[in-house]
Amino acid sequence: MTHVRRLSGLFVALLLGGGVVLGSRVPLGAAPDAAQIRMSWRALGRHVERCRAPTDAELEGVPAHMRQKEICERRLLPFRLVLRVDGALTLDELVSPSGARQDRPAYVFRELAVPPGPHRIEVQFTEEGGTTPGTSLAVDTTATLAPGDIALVTRGGDEGDRLAILLPPP
Asked: Rounded to the nearest 5°, which phi and psi values hold at 13?
């Protein structure tokens, strides 16, 4: 009886394993006929702090030793992301810092399908809302993309101080 169980368990395992192998060979979706521009990076903007005196309602119910003279809110500045493909404005949006209090880095992850062929790709990523000029990253290049190719726009340089476009090998 135990041999029958073992053999049936082995048979089921082989059957499931074979199903996984065959299922992994089935193509999903159609072959890509477009190329992609993918933007992916992380940016830490400048901190801004706004302080104000607490109201009487905020002080009510707070023990005297815990009352603060000022209530300060600290957050990071947002960024403006602009993408132009072949001179046409394709994307223009505000990228806000993450976190409930907007005190975490901003993350960029955007994809855009483009037809295969040569394209001029211009990306600008500029800090907004500060009183002095802040971080400004930009890249402007021409790339020839084949169907299924991905042009990756990401931070580059030793300090991540510029944008770079990584292209697939020709």
From this structure: -65, -45
